[in-house]
Design goal:
The protein is of the alpha/beta class. The protein has one domain: Barnase, Chain D, CATH 3.30.370. The protein contains four helices and three strands, in the order E-H-H-E-H-H-E.
Length: 108
């Protein structure tokens, strides 16, 4: 299963969050640095649309591991909440298209 790791200690403001996501997921240079753009980039993981460095097979799921999630929960709970909501939104879009969920979120 493909996975990426983000360090909750480094995600304490929105700029740092979007910088880390752009690098980790391989988002394009024109990535909009907001959660709508985050959803757009990750909702095509099975389409090879160039919005991410990852391309998933129909049975694969990209696991997002948040290290030091307790720090993120304490210092930037709004970012963690948005991450949880937007991961669920990407998976809902997959489900509506007849696909399996594309993302898993693991808090460590």
């Amino acid at each position: 299963m493909p996975s990426i790791q983000l360090d909750g200690q480094q995600l304490t403001d929105w700029n740092k969050f979007h910088d880390a996501c752009k690098t980790a997921f391989g988002f394009p240079d024109f990535y909009g640095r907001n959660m709508d753009a985050w959803i757009d980039c990750l909702s095509g993981l099975r389409d090879d649309d160039g919005m991410s460095a990852y391309v998933l097979g129909e049975d694969e799921q990209l696991q997002i591991q948040i290290l030091n999630s307790d720090v993120l929960r304490r210092d930037a709970p709004e970012i963690l909440s948005a991450l949880e909501e937007c991961t669920a939104e990407v998976n809902l879009l997959c489900s509506e298209s007849g696909e399996k969920p594309a993302l898993g979120l693991v808090l460590r």
